[in-house]
Amino acid sequence: MELLVHYEEKPCYEIVTEINNQRLPEKLSAMSIKNRKLCIVTESNVGPLYAKKIQALLSPYAKTVILHTFPAGEENKNLNTVQDLYRDLIEHKFERSDMLLALGGGVTGDLTGYAAATYLRGIDFVQLPTSLLAQVDSSIGGKTGVDFDCYKNMVGAFYQPKLVYMNLATLKTLPEREYLSGMGEIIKHALIKDGAYYQWLMDHLSAIRERDLSILEEMICRSCEIKRAVVENDPKEKGERALLNFGHTLGHAIETRKMETADQSNAPLLHGECVALGMLASMQISKERGLIDPALCQSVKKMFLDLRLPTTVSGITADDVIQASKNDKKMEAGKVKFILLKGCGTAFIDRTVTEAEMKMALASILEEPN
Ligand SMILES: NC(=O)c1ccc[n+]([C@@H]2O[C@H](COP(=O)([O-])OP(=O)(O)OC[C@H]3O[C@@H](n4cnc5c(N)ncnc54)[C@H](O)[C@@H]3O)[C@@H](O)[C@H]2O)c1
Ligand SMILES: [Zn+2]
What we know:
There is one protein chain. By secondary structure, the protein is α/β, with parallel strands linked by helices. 45% of the residues lie in helices and 19% in strands. The chain has 14 helices and 13 strands. Helix 10 (248-260) crosses helix 11 (271-288). The protein is globular and about 60 Å long. Nicotinamide-adenine-dinucleotide is lined by residues 43, 45-46, 49, 72, 74, 77, 104-108, 110, 130-131, 133-134, 137-138, 141, 143, 153, 170, 173-174, 178, 271.
């Protein structure tokens, strides 16, 4: 599939989904890479699996192709890693006309995009996303950045890629838990924008679990299309883009608290897992307000269980989560910005959710300590 993304009304970049890298040289050659240096930026898990092959594939088409590998993990999505990359680019005399390729999950895409936005005041970059989350979410929309101290995505830039090329076959090596966590964002897309897509997900759940590539292709295309439409309408998150934060107000707060309190008996949760919990909490509020059918909550819960996504969480309290949500960027003039549903496939922004409603919603997903 090829999908053209517009930015500020103008055609900006293509999203290409394939099940191999065959068309990558052609797509890059269309950007005149013949006289340009390329740097494949990747991390220590993904690099050994795919980077050398892509380097060999592209070398005949570009001036040179170098490889820069950093240690995998969110804890390395920071300015130190960006500095190491700048140094490597300077040593290899990268100029403004050269190009970075981000090969990896969301960590690699966010970090490489930010380095591309800032190196020599901006050089071109291409996204080669390899995690499900990166393919349907983080590689699209031009949000780039890194964490700073304990603050997530605190430093960054809106900077659009020149191309998003995804080889869906890379999903075959993605660890199971990471894969299922990515499904959290996909179910989010269906719930906020497309009831028919939600039904389709229910109908294809076993093929999805088995990572059947033709089903995955259809699923990823539908999700990319939803994300494309939302970011085109609202590239800088002034309005509608906030709908993508469905499940994230409380989800992020749960993620933060789980991270802060993590120990051997209380492991942190992945992002998509927290989003799943946050969506259940938001749906609880929507249900109590009479906006959605209780059967939808039951159905979503069942889908999460089938995908081994959590439906309850332990080791944290409602007060902690509410406090963490107040420290979040999604606050506006002291009001927490919530995304609620008014039916399967229709979401809206609400600024009237009270602390009592949040407590009630959290009570439905928090496990009491024994
Ligand atoms: N820019 C945005 O709009 C946006 C949106 C959502 C999330 N994000 C960011 O994305 C990041 C999360 O992304 P993620 O979940 O992809 O994390 P990630 O990049 O850490 O990847 C998850 C794990 O899977 C491994 N991995 C990735 N692809 C693989 C493959 N094909 N085979 C084997 N292992 C593979 C990685 O090494 C890592 O261990 C966060 O930093 C988050 O802030 C950004
Ligand atoms: Zn998310």
